[in-house]
């Protein structure tokens, strides 16, 4: 066993106390010395956090949700998941939907994505009232306009990364060579060029989520919806996925809406929309 200072009978040292002791406990003199050391009369600078100025909103709405209601029926029981939600999201915005468990986040995301039907109200995406589309047209619209990312990735287990990424292009009937070129470029974009022949089980959780994001972008949808995309990842990997979303927004102009429980990740978005009991909490109100 190696001797640490305390093992060797030395008292535990407190660097702040040591620093003050060198000024005979004169705190003012210590602060003045620190200021002088940092080259001015200002307080010493704290390590900079990556704070970004708020991005101006364009006002060009890609999503318009009007008085949206969703009631689930379970036998004779009714569960009101959304009780009249209205919101607008701009083209190129990165928005986080937050709120307590059961507040209606996933329900709202699914309705925006046309994965479920509302009980009332409407959703417009990219100028189309999706509630008015037939199932076949809605399915085509989703394939072209919306990319989906989920907590558990949902990659095809028997397909290698490149083929997995090509799947939305197969549904869109994109010629094979073209979709392969698109997949290859996106795999590079998400930092997985050296994993292109891997099966999902040969990748880490973070890599699988990057793969799912590449796949979601294959048809270059203007909108990406992600439900708890970091929910199955450790915090550092989760943060790197949020950085990837930021890059996708900046490089492709993609509008991104994520559902997340993680407040620190939500703060990285351009805007947070908080739900409580199926309603939007007005900004400035603590739910
Ligand atoms: N398919 C369903 N059938 C019945 N009730 C449902 C269904 N899906 C959701 N609910 C109910 O609707 C409400 C909102 O659920 P939702 O999943 O949208 O919340 P959430 O905010 O995403 O929750 P979490 O953060 O736990 O995922 C909850 O009370 C839930 O129990």
Outline the structure in words.
The protein is α/β, with parallel strands linked by helices and 287 residues long. The chain is built from 9 helices and 10 strands. A hairpin with a 2-residue loop joins β1 and β2. It starts with 14 loop residues before the first helix and ends in a 7-residue tail after the last strand. The radius of gyration is 25 Å and the shape is globular. It folds into 2 domains: 35 residues, no CATH class; 220 residues, P-loop containing nucleotide triphosphate hydrolases (Rossmann fold, 3-Layer(aba) Sandwich), CATH 3.40.50.300. The N terminus is likely disordered. α5 packs across α6 and α5 runs parallel beside α7. 33% of the residues lie in helices and 23% in strands. The protein binds adenosine-5'-triphosphate (ATP). Adenosine-5'-triphosphate binds next to β1, β2 and α3.
